[in-house]
Design goal:
heterodimer, A: 189 residues, alpha/beta, 5-stranded parallel β-sheet, globular, B: 270 residues, mainly alpha, MetI-like fold, 11 helices
């Protein structure tokens, strides 16, 4: 998948996040985007997903439907874990991904009753079960223990055979869990 | 287990005693003021009022008056809740409509209820005036709360819905409406008392046949102060009972609807 960014400018008030930023990334499988905190990683992927508009410049992503896992879980607190997933896919697929995340026992639970790590996995399951051409994950390993990071890394590796994945992580070892290529934003500035 | 129950029972008993003592204090004060004034027409004794109330309760005309008043006010209340909810949803999503309706609701909220009653007396049949006035008092409260509840929906959930391309109705069903439920319930509860009082006030001025309002008005015209107090006591008691009953019914209905829809009620009450 080739992503093209041309002369991107993005400001929040007076704070400049991107000033005439250009980059071209061609990748298959998983791309891990790294960079210092406050560099604009989340802003960049939100613009890739069309959730935020740049002030000027152009972003070209060859995908119509994009799965997006937010840095916060953003699960709907009013409905069950399963309903959070069936909001984006059918029940069969939802159950499959819940099972992959070892959360089938929690399908009828309220998202608020889950631990932080469980909620993270539900958010990840939702991103994976959404029928998309590109998956963007913001800090998917946050709050997970080592064993789960390895397990999820494996799931992502498999998933990346079907569609490309972009991961934003501040964890330096994140790439090791899923064998990702890395893109260091610090070096691109 | 037993100790928990005993503790609860003790707490309830203490609460009842406190309420009873407060009641005795105010009744005592009433009795003292009555003794001091000594003119029944100005202030009747508590005993005379409660005796009259007890006489009134089994009377057919009393039951019919209460039923008629309740019927009209309940109709106005339900219409107010319905229209307030629909308008609240619409104006929460349309800035243009919100701008259009805001002055109307502000005018309704700030205009003295008596002005509307007098206007309604000119426009409508007098039996419909209490219905209309209750409707007019209830609708802005429900509108403000529903509209505010929807507008106050967690923006991060809306962004999530945008990311996953939720359609309007999916957003409404899964995010907006459950977010607005607590403020809707608060509006319904607040509006009961207000609607009841406004409805009775409208009845007093428009005097529809066999209603609480006409009885209050007659008591005033014939200077039957004991009757006036007895009817007022009836209005207060009915207001308290109806408010509690309606709140219970609303909560029961909502918990059933929410459960049936697969919602977590405790999470919508946050």
């Amino acid at each position: 998948m080739k992503i093209q960014i041309n002369n991107l400018c993005k400001k929040y008030g007076k704070k400049v996040i991107f000033d005439n930023f250009s980059a071209s990334v061609d990748f298959d499988g998983i791309l891990m985007v790294k960079g210092k905190s406050g560099l604009g990683k989340t802003t960049l992927i939100k613009m890739l997903a069309g959730l935020e508009k740049p002030n000027s410049g152009k972003i070209s992503v060859p995908a119509e439907r994009i799965s997006f896992m937010f840095q916060e879980d953003r699960l709907i607190p009013f409905v069950s874990v399963l309903k959070n997933l069936t909001a984006v896919c059918n029940e069969e697929k939802a159950l499959k991904y819940l099972s992959l995340m070892e959360l089938e026992q929690e399908k009828d639970a309220s998202p608020l009753s889950l631990s932080g790590g469980m909620r993270r996995r539900v958010a990840l399951a939702r991103a994976l079960c959404y029928d998309s051409e590109l998956i963007i994950l913001d800090e998917p390993f946050k709050g997970l223990d080592e064993a789960l990071k390895i397990k999820i890394g494996e799931i992502l590796k498999k998933e990346s055979n079907a569609r490309p994945i972009i991961i934003v992580s501040h964890e330096t070892d994140g790439a090791d869990f899923c064998g990702a290529e890395t893109l260091d934003l610090d070096k691109l500035y | 287990m037993i100790s928990i129950m005993e503790h609860k029972l003790k707490k309830t008993l203490i609460f009842i005693i406190k309420i009873a003592l407060a009641g005795i204090f105010w009744l005592g004060l009433w009795q003292l003021v009555y003794k001091k004034i000594g003119i029944d027409v100005i202030l009747p004794s508590p005993a005379a009022v409660f005796k009259r109330l007890a006489e009134m309760l089994p009377e057919k005309s009393f039951i019919q008056s209460v039923f008629n008043s309740f019927k009209g006010i309940a109709l106005g209340y339900m219409a107010g809740v319905l229209f307030g909810t629909v308008l609240g949803i619409i104006t929460a999503f349309s800035k243009t409509l919100n701008t259009l309706f805001k002055p109307f609701f502000t005018a309704v909220k700030t205009t003295p209820v008596v002005s509307f009653i007098i206007l309604a007396l000119i426009w409508l049949e007098k039996t419909r005036v209490p219905v209309f006035i209750t409707f007019l008092m209830v609708m802005p409260i429900v509108w403000a709360n529903v509209s505010g509840g929807i507008s106050g929906t967690d923006k991060s959930l809306i962004e999530m819905a945008k990311a996953y391309k939720f359609g309007f109705f999916k957003k409404l069903k899964l995010i907006y409406l459950p977010s607005a439920v607590p403020s809707f319930m608060t509006a319904c509860e607040t509006a009961v008392g207000l609607g009841w009082k406004a409805g009775i006030a409208a009845e007093v001025l428009c005097t529809p046949k066999n209603s609480i309002g006409i009885n209050l008005r007659n008591a005033q015209i014939y200077i039957e102060t004991v009757d006036l107090f007895a009817w007022t006591a009836a209005v207060i008691i009915l207001s308290l009972v109806l408010e509690k009953a309606l709140v219970w019914v609303l909560r029961f209905m909502f918990s059933r609807i929410m459960k049936k829809g697969g919602y977590f009620i405790e999470n919508t009450n946050k």
